[in-house]
Amino acid sequence: MPHFIENKSGHFVVTTSIVGKIGTPLRSTYAATKHALHGFFDSLRAEHYNDNIAVTLVCPGFVTTNVSRNALTGNGTPQNKMDSATVNGIDPDRFAELMLKAIKNKKEEVYIAGAKEKLGVYTKRFFPKLLSKMIRKLSVT
Q1: Which family would the database say this protein is a member of (predicted)?
Q2: Beta carbons within 8 Å of 62's beta carbon, 6+ residues apart
């Protein structure tokens, strides 16, 4: 479920995901919801810039949570297991620290992730075909 906060200063903070930039195998529904958040809040930011409305999209990579355990398989049942990327993800406390810093600095978009995940975002932008080949080889189970 997406989370967003609007504080009294007109600053929306949206927790989305690196998957909002890069779709990965076995995460199609998750990717669709995150891509939608990016589209909506990027548009909101542009439409209301003159109204002093700020938007920060916080894009975590793998964070050590139960997200992979709760991911749904093709038939709609939970995966019920942790994938290695999630197990080795960023510590939730460290993620929170970096998120607060981005909010304080009113960043428009911040990637809080490991080096490989951040590299994936930039590879998608500049070398999309290369990233497509890399993603097909990715194991998220």
Answers
A1: Belongs to the short-chain dehydrogenases/reductases (SDR) family.
A2: 85, 86, 88, 89, 90, 113, 114, 117
